[in-house]
Amino acid sequence: MAKRKIVLVGCGAVGSSFIYSAINQGLAQEYVLIDAFEGIAEGNAIDFADCQAALDHPFISIKAGNYSDCKDADIIVITAGRPQKDGETRLNMVADNAKIMKSIALEIKKSGFKGVTIIASNPVDIMTTVYQKITQFDYHQVLGSGTILDTLRLQYLIGEKIAVNPKSVAAYVIGEHGDSSMIPWSSVSVGNKTIYQQITEGRIKEKDLEELRKEVAQRAYKIIKLKRATFYGIGAALALLVRNILEGQNHVLVAGAYLQGEYGQQGFYIGVPTILYEKGWKRVVQLPLTKEEQTAFDKSCAIIKETLETAFAAIK
């Protein structure tokens, strides 16, 4: 097996949670940690190295590095940015994090990096679009975490409601990773039966659908209020995306992909089902949305397009 190298940019709680998931799954043999505060990157590298003797899939090296280490990396995961404050929406962070993302993008571009970039910095749809526009990397080699975490939350909550394993739930949250995300219920199924058949058979009530939507939308705020930040869920979600790209088996997962006419939209990254392979994402999977679902998705897209104007104004 070829030696794999992952670079993490941003060693805060989200980035550290991702690396912890990655090393426990043996996703790579080399890890490089980059952070604006060098001591944090070095401290984390030493701390993670202490896991080595306990791992089922030991790595070769983990170290604090710099952007020159990006040149031969397979995947770069970017989680850098200021954290979301209690009561603040992800969109409130756009100007500050756009400036941070521009500086990171320029450094990575300068390194000669040729691999796949995954971005989780918030607001993620905006930051992914900014990164791609600055670097001019191939659209398909750049992706955001999009609504992967929202989707995993939905699968868990539906599974809990119907008393099935979340992996048996086929469901997606699409649109902005934020308050305007939407659930195309017409495409949700459990055990090959649609959610509406599950309602008919009495396993779930119709009123539960709206409650589930609200719970998914508000879950991050609830966690932030209780413990100031979310990180384990997104860390595991990022590891899931990385694993599916490295394995290159054409799995369908929700991620932030660049729309070029799909769903009647174009010109930005947004959370949609995509086919992942070793070079990033291959194509967007178009769900058959109802008229009402399409309207909700269009509204989410409109918010992203409007917010992008603020982001690009901040980095002129």
In summary, what is this structure?
Pathway: Fermentation; pyruvate fermentation to lactate; (S)-lactate from pyruvate: step 1/1. NAD(+) binds at residues 14, 35, 67, 103, 120-122, 145. By secondary structure, the chain is an alpha/beta fold.
Describe this protein with a few key phrases.
316 residues, 44% helix, L-lactate/malate_DH, L-lactate dehydrogenase, phosphoprotein, EC 1.1.1.27, six-stranded parallel beta sheet, Lactate/malate_DH_N
Account of the 3D structure:
With 316 residues, this protein is of the alpha/beta class. It is built from nine helices and twelve strands. Strands 3-2-1-4-5-6 form a six-stranded parallel sheet, with helices on both faces. It has a three-stranded antiparallel sheet with strand order 7-8-9. Strands 10-11-12 form a three-stranded antiparallel sheet. A hairpin with a 2-residue loop joins strand 8 and strand 9.
